[in-house]
Write a structure and sequence with these properties.
Layout lengths: L5 H12 L37 H9 L4 H19 L1 H13 L5 H4 L8 H16 L10 H15 L8 E5 L7 H7 L3 E6 L2 H10 L4 E4 L2 H6 L8 E4 L9 H10 L7 E3 L1
Parallel strand pairs: 1-2, 1-4, 2-3, 4-5
Helix pairs in contact: 1-3, 1-4, 2-3, 3-4, 3-6, 4-6, 6-9
Length: 264
């Protein structure tokens, strides 16, 4: 998983707020080091197919002369610039939020997010994971190690569920890597939610029979008629929530009677 550093994100936002841009030289062939969740890292110098990334991502890679970290920062800055034009107030809240939390690490900083900052926090996560997902290769198999981890997570999430298991909610589903392992472990209705629209689009292409929604967990849980779940999974996602205890309490409140699972 590629995490763009807090400093890089803040720099992109500040640069965007000052309306400064800097282009890079274009190349006919771009060497891409991007990889999906659990995907094997390409051999050094190996080129991947251009279809592995979205067109805006490829443009950023060319501007960055093939440097993935810089390309992701450029992608984030472009998205932030578009947000500033489309929703200037949301952009200003995002800049203020990042400046006030610049010194905090991603996992510890989330614990200090107040209710008034929740929208900016979710927006930051959305832009960040869009900037990751845009560079992920399509249909690349995870490593054997990651396959084993996903299989164990699926078994833990479905252990004890009956033949008609109800809904399993995958919070922060990413590109849907858990889907085949859940299907192999139990007969349940899988629903994946994620803040990143780019992640959700990739998940839908990879697993067209599964259900994915671009939605935050709080929005999913608080909407009228939200179903009770047999299992709720936070696979590497819980650390990004502003209040982890409150999130788990909300998850527990949305488990079906007798459902044993709300797991990280």
């Amino acid at each position: 998983v590629v995490w763009m550093g807090q400093g890089a994100i803040l720099l992109a936002l500040v640069a965007c707020s000052r309306a400064t841009t800097r282009g890079g030289a274009a190349r006919a062939h771009v060497r891409m080091a991007a990889r999906g969740f659990g995907a094997a890292k390409p051999e050094k110098g190996r080129r991947t197919e251009e279809g592995s990334a979205t067109q805006p991502a490829l443009d950023c890679l060319r501007r960055a002369d093939g440097d993935l970290d810089r390309a992701q920062s450029l992608y984030f800055a472009d998205a932030a610039r578009a947000l500033r034009t489309r929703e200037p107030q949301a952009f200003e809240r995002l800049v203020a939020f990042k400046q006030s939390h610049a010194a905090a690490a991603p996992t510890s900083g989330a614990a200090h997010v107040g209710e008034s900052d929740a929208g900016a926090h979710e927006l930051l996560l959305e832009l960040t994971w869009d900037s990751v997902a845009a560079f992920m290769p399509e249909a690349q198999r995870p490593t054997r190690e990651i396959e084993g981890r996903l299989r164990r997570i699926a078994h833990a999430a479905t252990d004890g569920l009956g033949p008609v298991s109800g809904t399993l909610l995958d919070v922060g589903c990413g590109d849907g890597a858990l889907v085949p392992h859940v299907a192999a472990a139990a007969a349940c209705d899988y629903v994946g939610i994620d803040l990143s629209s780019v992640m959700v689009a990739r998940a839908r292409r990879a697993h067209p029979a599964a259900r994915f929604e671009r939605r935050s967990f709080s929005a999913w849980a608080e909407r009228p008629g939200a179903p009770r779940c047999a299992s709720i999974v936070f696979n590497g996602a819980l650390q990004f929530f502003a209040d982890q205890k409150a999130t788990l309490a909300l998850a527990a409140a949305h488990l079906a009677p007798g459902a044993p699972h709300a797991c990280e």
